[in-house]
Write the structure tokens for this entry.
Amino acid sequence: GDFKPLRYLPKGKTVVLGLVTTKFGAMESKDDLKRRTDEAARYAPLDQLALSPQCGFSSTVHGNDIAVEAQRAKLRLVIEVAEEVEILLHPEFQEVGRSGRAYNRATIISDLSAPESHPVVMSEGFAVAELGSDAALLTYRSAHVQPDGSLLNYTLRSSVWVCTVAGWQLRYHQGTAAAETW
């Protein structure tokens, strides 16, 4: 099935995505779990989603034929994927793109995991300015690299990073069309 029913998830409620099977020991890939989580995030905010094995490892009278080490590995996988998805983007992340379009955390994660190809981007001129002991401004410029090596969509970029209990997280990002090329 798909995740369309999640669009009815009330604010303040959390749904657990049972994406890791407990029926057999073959491991799901991190990329597949991230892709499925991102699919769910198209219908409900990522901060209202949790990742879990689908049910207990002994969900039948006789249990499932899955080794204890495989069970542990699956639980570690759930933790690793959840941490990787959440670690860089602040829960209240916002972006104003080069086009003027507004994005939030869920839309960025969804867009990054979409199956269509993403442009090759050249970025340079990185500079960091400390805004305080727990905040920094990152500025740089970027452009899309065309198949022939030429550049297109020259953009000036700025990001506000904040230090949280989870580490440094991207809180705000903006891309502005550059007036001049380089």
